[in-house]
Design a protein that fits this description.
By secondary structure, the chain is α+β, with helices and mostly antiparallel strands. The chain has 39 helices and 39 strands. Strands 1, 2, 3, 4, 5, 6, 7, 8 and 14 form a 9-stranded antiparallel beta sheet that branches. β21 and β22 form a beta hairpin. The longest helix is centred in the middle third of the chain and has 46 residues. The termini are far apart.
Length: about 1500
């Protein structure tokens, strides 16, 4: 019987200990341990307290006869069942318990001669009514836990054998525990101080079991005799068992409290106490591991062995530090949606946590299939699995400082969270043991396993985490890791770990302010939930304060060591696999790289997973997490990545801002050249870039998506912009020109804004990547772009293999709106610049320009030029890649396709340039539209002391005839010359330089521009309107140094003709032209024209010209017209433009034609008409006077000053050739190179082009004839003579030319004679016949000039007349004759061949101050050899020789007109000289005189 009681005690103990978290397995182990003990003693006691004596009556007393008889006559039945149980809190538990049976070991009872053996014991129908736990805190040193159990029930079946005296037998039996059984237990836990120490003692001050055995039945031999006899003992046996069982339970529990519980508490206290002591110094120093570890460099002191976290930029560039800063700003920045929170919290809620704010972990990350425990013993087969782990509070970060390099190899991470809760959903599955010695069996064959699902929740608040890790990452090992080894996910960890030589937690600290009692819920019954939660709360109250204090040291010691052990074991695991047997000539199939195996096979790839699963996994994550779209089509990447990152960078979601100046082009202190006329400094800046709407990425979006049609095509598609949130960009453009004295002085900052409501980009890239190079790519070169390029072979058309890197297709679709605002503008007209931009938009210029730009960009990207640049970079990449065999080698010198423009490219440039020039003109006009004309500027000339200046008001100081000549020139140029009412300047220009259409065409000898297949050559510049002068008042002296000029023209313009060709044979436009028979490589003419109407110019020029410097100029310095300006300027000390005003009545034409396509031509015409015919025409015209007087005048003024300064520099005006020592060759001096060579001259322009140009103008005039056969030279003669005499063709010199008084005494004749010549007139000098040849060089002769002329041609004869005075008075006679003597000659022909040998050196050195000195000219002639009599000796043909002369006159008439004649013969002679005979005689005499002269 003593062995039966442990079985009942086990059932009670299982129930009593269940709430205290004793597992079923532990209970069965306890049963196995205690079943062999003989520790039960009989004796019934209801309540037992410490100090109370146990009953000594424990003997077993046999029943009396009457008891036996009564037992035989009746069976005792139990009437102790509770009539109706209260609502059962443990119904589900009892249901489970009802499905199992306990198979217990055999037991024997030997007492007072009765031997009873119990075998095949099976207990079932386990049931518990209620269990209550009450926890109370008595003091800071004592806490109580009260356990009340009620409603216990149990039924056990068994087989029994007995032997008593001469009786023996056996049978079966049953024992049942009444469900009114109960128990009460008080546990007292004591500690020195619960704030600082854990409990170390447990006692049971009260134990009150109430065990009621409802029934014990014995069945015997079938007749019931033996069983009845045994049943006679049931009452006595039952009471004894009840009492002894209660005593045993209390004794056992008290023993457990005194021994097992105390030992357990002591062990726990010792374990916890070890973590309450102060830590050693090394454990509190996170750098202790690093400081105690000797880390030697790999190569001397240059390359460290371990990765230095304090110098990451050495390995990855400065961008890594910037990236970490950006990440910190993003994580630590304030949240926009939650005031007072960090941005990381919002990011986690929006992108990582679920809708309940939980972070759900997959249990398989920690346990395979989530199984935490699997056990199989004699009781049960148990599986405990983790169903899910949910972490709450991850979004409660208050502070964060990650990856802080506190040492070269030590990283510190500090985190602060407000709260953190871990919720684990568990599942326990139990079924009966299948072992042969199993104790627990299931009732029936189809009973399901017992499954228990419950939740454990643990919470802490105000958590501070400080974790420092020493990472000895071997730089060489890490750098040599091959990319191919990391493409399989299973190899990533081993490969990365293989690069870590040392990994240790050098510091781990977690402190919490409070721990919330663990909460267990979800058990099958409310009662179980309540019991476990209450028990857990009680334990938590006992250990909370101590655990909080012990936790930091526990983590620093135990957990840190455990984690370091784990890290050490991990580092000792399998190494990184090597990549071997890769085909060298195989190229990566992007379908296999970016798709998983199944999709790759469907797309046409091999589908064998040759490139691992990492890249497809990453691409799938990108697609699923970042590229998924919401209902509005917006991608998740906007909220997950772009919005928070941009907010961290700029403070605004979807916006990128780059504050400050990011482009600064500055030119200061411009040297003394022509540009100083505009400004002495220039600064262009771009600043404050802002781009918004970046978080409007919308589907569909493609990133590196392989095309099924090719293994090497990657498609990329990007869409941005939604209706209410366009893609906007703006930046500030600053331009500073000059200081306040600069004519173009401006200081403006403009805010340029661009808005794109939508934008879509589609780019298909072709790339062939060598598989072997990719797989063996070392991580150390990950950030070397050249190494990535080196994996791509250079495209070679000759190889026949399509390889390389190229843009296969590009398309960009977007709409753009632009706007401008003045931030700070010194030019107020810029405030209206926005209207010009809107005007361009309205006239479709912007959209058309965008379309053309996109087309050109696409052509360029897909063309040979860009491909050539790409190939060049690829060809040089290997030489810049450290792991490449060609690293450091010299350049191969491989050439690539140069840039070659297409016709569409040139056409687009012209389309953009021409309207932009017009817009600039409009912008400048707006600047000056509201300004007044600037008054004349008081220009201060810089004149050195002692300088002798030319007085413009008294040019006679230079030459006596200069004032007259200047006045004559001025009067002629500004006056009407004939009935046509043309001004003299017009007539002169028409006769000298203008063609029949009134145009002045200046040919340009231009080698042109040749680049990129584009040839551009300037043909000529044509001045238009030089025949339309209506007023020409120039060179009017208004001061000693000032000229005033006023000019009016009906039209004034310029037309520039250029030749343009493009070597383009592949474009559509080129093919169309070729189809029409046009040779696209021939030059096509482009004409640019600008013609103004009703132009008025008012110009005042100040000039300080040095008379001596002007006179000292040598002829040889200005023989080349290119030097004339500099030489003349070199004589000027100072030059200034005080007034320059130009007024324009209308714009007649502003156009471009030729080469450009018809569409471009029409677009330009439309834009020009819109600008100058309607919108801005009046603005431009009205602004001309102010613009020219305010802006153009100072520019021209400074330009002239700069030119003067440059001209005075050494070499600006060249010195004559001092090596010349020959005779001047008139052929090379006067004729073009070609004509000079025809006459056997040198033909290389040894004397420049000045005389050639003048002679060419004279030749044109001499060779042309009018309708009467007279030379055009007469117009020039007429204009020149008219200014002198007021009569065209006449030269008139009034007054006395010669006057002489003579006293004569000869042979008795004494007389006083007065002779005088006055009022000389040469008339009809403009009667030259055509053609005229003057100074014509002769073939084969360098110094002979041929001259042929005819004068007196036409209706009027050449006439010379003068007044002659002969007056005398003698002794006997007095004479007074005053008459006009004239000679008229018709058709005087002259032929003259002149030898003129002029020495080169004197000619070159001839000073301009002697240009009117005939003696000086003669001094340049070769001096002949003369004898003492002045007669030539030796060679006669030297110097100047009149080699031949022929003169003839067709009619000569002499006439006399007496004014006062005292000699009658003169009167008679005047009448006879007019007769035909006299005329013939006069003609004959004249011809004889001419013959005589010719023969001299």
């Amino acid at each position: 019987m003593n062995d039966i009681l442990p079985l009942l005690f086990f059932a009670l103990l299982c129930i009593m200990r269940l709430p205290t978290s004793l597992s079923a397995a532990d209970a069965f182990e306890l049963l196995e341990e205690d079943a062999s003990r003989d520790f039960l003693h009989f004796g019934a006691t209801n309540d037992y307290y410490p100090g109370q004596s146990a009953s000594s009556s424990s003997a077993f007393t046999l029943p009396s006869r009457s008891d036996i008889v009564s037992a035989l006559l009746r069976r005792r039945t139990s009437n102790r069942n509770v009539s109706e149980r209260q609502a059962d809190k443990f119904s589900s538990l009892n249901k489970i318990l009802s499905q199992i049976s306990l198979r217990l070991p055999d037991a024997k009872v030997s007492r007072s001669g009765l031997d009873l053996t119990i075998t095949e014991i099976t207990c079932r129908d386990l049931n518990v009514g209620d269990i209550e736990l009450v926890h109370s805190i008595e003091s800071n040193t004592s806490q109580n836990l009260n356990v009340d159990i009620s409603g216990l029930a149990l039924r056990c079946d068994f087989t029994w054998q007995y032997k008593w005296s001469f009786f023996n037998g056996g049978g079966s039996g049953m024992a049942r525990l009444d469900d009114s059984s109960s128990a009460s237990l008080d546990l007292r836990f004591e500690s020195e101080d619960y704030d600082t120490r854990p409990p170390d003692d447990v006692s049971i001050p009260h134990c009150g079991p109430d065990i009621q055995i409802a029934d014990m039945d014995f069945d015997g031999d079938g007749l019931g005799i033996i069983g009845g006899i045994m049943n006679l003992f049931e009452g006595l046996l039952r009471d004894t068992v009840e009492g002894e069982l209660g005593d045993t339970v209390c004794d056992e529990l008290r023993g457990m409290g005194d021994s097992a519980f105390d030992d357990l508490l002591v062990r726990l206290g010792e374990e916890i106490g070890a973590y309450l002591e102060p830590l050693e110094g090394s454990l509190t120093d996170p750098l202790s591991v690093e400081n105690n570890m000797a880390v030697t460099p790999m190569i001397e002191d240059t390359v460290p062995m371990y990765l230095n976290f304090q110098e990451l930029d050495v390995y990855a560039g400065e961008w890594i530090n910037s990236a970490l800063d950006q990440a910190n700003d993003f994580f630590l920045g304030p949240s926009e949606s939650a005031v007072g929170e960090l941005g990381i919290n919002t990011f986690l809620r929006d992108n990582i946590l679920n809708e309940n704010g939980e972070f759900v972990l997959d249990p398989s990350l920690f346990f395979e299939n989530g199984v935490v425990f699997e056990g199989h013993d004699m009781l049960t087969e148990t599986t405990l699995s983790l169903q899910s782990i949910k972490i709450q509070g991850i979004d409660s970060f208050k502070e964060m400082d990650l990856m802080k390099a506190i040492g070269k190899h030590t990283l510190q991470n500090k985190l602060k969270l407000d709260h953190l809760s871990i919720v684990a959903e568990m599942e326990a599955e139990m079924k009966a043991s299948s072992k042969s010695n199993s104790v627990v069996v299931m009732n029936g064959n189809n009973v399901s396993p017992i499954t228990e699902n419950f939740t454990v929740e643990f919470s802490v608040t105000n958590i501070d985490i400080d974790a420092s890790v020493f990472l000895g990452i071997n730089v060489e090992t890490l750098g040599n890791l091959e990319l191919g080894s990391l493409l399989h996910s299973k190899d990533i960890i081993p490969c990365l770990l293989s690069a870590i030589d040392e990994a240790k937690f050098s510091g781990l600290s977690v402190t919490v302010q409070d721990m919330v009692p663990p909460k267990l819920s979800g058990f099958i019954d409310y009662g179980i939930d309540h019991l476990i939660s209450t028990a857990a709360a009680a334990l938590f109250d006992m250990y909370e304060n101590v655990l909080i204090k012990a936790m930091p040291n526990f983590l620093e010691m135990y957990v840190r060591d455990m984690m370091n052990d784990f890290a050490e074991n991990a580092l000792d695991a399998d190494r990184c696999p090597k990549i071997e047997n890769v085909e060298e000539d195989r190229y990566v199939d992007f379908r296999d790289m970016f798709y998983d195996q199944a999709d790759a096979a469907l797309a046409g790839g091999s589908g064998d997973g040759r490139y691992g699963n990492v890249i497809p996994w990453v691409m799938n994550i990108i697609d699923d997490q970042f590229l998924s779209a919401d209902d509005d089509g917006l991608l998740a990447i906007n909220d997950m990545l772009i919005a928070p990152l941009t907010k961290s960078q700029s403070g605004t979601e979807g916006a990128f801002k780059l504050n400050g100046t990011f482009v600064n082009l500055n030119k200061e202190e411009v040297t003394l050249d022509i540009w100083q006329a505009f400004a002495d400094n220039l600064r262009l800046t771009l600043s404050d870039l802002s781009v918004s709407g970046l978080d409007t990425l919308k589907g569909p979006m493609k990133l590196l998506e392989p095309r099924t049609s090719s293994a090497h095509l990657l498609e990329n598609q990007l869409s941005l912009g939604i209706p209410n949130k366009p893609l906007d960009a703006s930046f500030q453009f600053g331009i500073d020109v000059g200081d306040e004295t600069s004519p173009l002085a401006t200081h403006n900052i403009m805010d340029l804004q661009f808005s794109m409501p939508s934008m879509e980009v589609l780019a298909v890239v072709f790339a062939t990547v060598q598989e072997s190079r990719l797989m063996k790519f070392p991580l150390k070169d990950m950030f070397n772009f050249s190494c990535w390029l080196s994996m791509i072979p250079v495209s070679t058309k000759s190889s026949g293999i399509n390889v390389g890197l190229a843009m296969h297709y590009l398309d960009l679709i977007f709409d753009i709106l632009s706007n401008t605002e003045c931030v700070s503008c010194s030019n107020t007209w810029l405030e209206d610049l926005n209207s010009i931009v809107q005007f361009l938009d309205k006239n479709n210029f912007t959209s058309e320009l965008k379309s053309r730009a996109l087309s050109i960009a696409s052509d360029l990207l897909e063309g040979d030029w860009v491909q050539g640049m790409v190939d060049k970079e690829i060809s040089q990449a290997s030489q810049r890649c450290p792991h490449d065999a060609a690293f450091g080698s010299s350049q191969t010198g491989q050439t690539h396709s140069p840039f070659k423009a297409t016709r569409s490219f040139v056409d687009g440039v012209l389309y953009a340039a021409f309207p932009l020039v017009q817009v600039i003109a409009v912008a400048l006009a707006q600047k000056h539209s509201n300004l007044e004309i600037a008054p004349p500027v008081d220009v201060q000339l810089d004149i050195p002391d002692g300088a002798k200046l030319i007085d413009l008001t008294d040019l006679s100081s230079v030459a006596s005839w200069a004032d007259m000549a200047l006045g004559e020139v001025r009067n002629y140029l500004g006056g009407n010359v004939d009935e046509s009412q043309d001004l003299g300047i017009t007539s002169m220009l028409q006769s000298l330089i203008l063609d029949d259409n009134g145009l002045l065409t200046i040919p340009i000898e231009d080698e042109g521009f040749d680049a990129g297949g584009v040839k551009l050559s300037l043909y000529d510049v044509t001045m238009v309107g030089l025949d339309s002068f209506t007023a020409f008042n120039v060179l009017k002296t208004s001061g000693p140094s000032m000229f005033s000029n006023s000019v009016k023209l009906q039209r004034l313009g310029v037309t520039v003709k250029m030749g343009l060709s493009v070597e383009d044979e592949d474009s559509n436009q080129a093919r169309m032209l070729a189809a029409n028979g046009i040779n696209i490589n021939e030059m096509e003419t482009i004409t640019v024209s600008l013609i103004l109407k009703d132009v008025n110019l008012d110009v005042s020029l100040l000039m300080a010209m040095d008379q001596d410097l002007m006179g000292e100029l040598q002829l040889g310095s200005i023989l080349d017209t290119n030097n004339i300006l500099n030489c003349l300027l070199s004589t000027i000390h100072s030059l200034g433009l005080s007034k320059f005003v130009m007024d324009v009545g209308d714009i007649e034409e502003f156009s471009i034609s030729g080469f450009i396509s018809e569409d471009t031509n029409n677009s330009i015409k439309s834009m020009t008409e819109a600008i100058f015919a309607s919108e801005y025409k009046s603005v431009v015209l009205d602004a001309f006077p102010a613009f020219t007087s305010i802006t153009i005048r100072p520019i021209l003024h400074d330009i002239m000053r700069v030119l003067v300064d440059k001209a005075r520099d050494d070499g600006a005006c060249p010195e004559p050739d001092s090596t010349a020592n020959g005779i001047l060759d008139w052929r090379d001096l006067l004729l073009s190179e070609g004509r000079a060579m025809q006459l056997f001259g040198r033909g290389n322009s040894p004397y420049g082009n000045l005389f050639r140009m003048i002679f060419g103008v004279l030749e044109n005039m001499m060779s042309e004839a009018d309708d009467n056969g007279l030379s055009q030279m007469n117009d020039l003669v007429t204009s020149l003579t008219e200014r002198q005499s007021n009569v065209g063709g006449d030269l008139y010199y009034p007054g006395d030319i010669f006057k002489q008084d003579l006293d004569v005494a000869l042979n008795g004749l004494n007389a006083a004679i007065e002779l005088g010549v006055s009022d000389v007139r040469l008339s009809n000098l403009n009667s030259l016949g055509a053609p005229i040849k003057v100074l014509q060089p002769v073939k084969g002769e360098s110094s002979i000039l041929d001259n042929t002329a005819s004068i007196g041609a036409g209706s009027e004869a050449l006439r010379a007349e003068f007044r002659l005075l002969i007056k005398g008075k003698g002794n006997e006679v007095e004479v007074h004759n005053e008459l006009m003597l004239g000679l008229s000659m018709r058709n005087v022909d002259m032929m003259l061949e002149l030898l003129a040998q002029v020495e080169e050196l004197p000619f070159f050195n001839f000073p301009l101050q002697d240009v009117l000195n005939l003696q000086c000219w003669l001094a340049t002639v070769v001096t002949p050899a003369l004898n003492k009599y002045g007669i030539r000796e030796g060679e006669r043909d030297t110097g100047i020789v009149l080699q031949s002369l022929a003169l003839a006159v067709a009619e000569a008439r002499l006439d006399i007109e007496c004014i006062e004649c005292s000699s009658p013969m003169l009167i008679e002679m005047s009448d006879k000289l007019g007769s035909p005979e006299a005329v013939d005689d006069t003609t004959d005499v004249a011809n004889m005189v001419f013959d005589y002269i010719s023969n001299l």
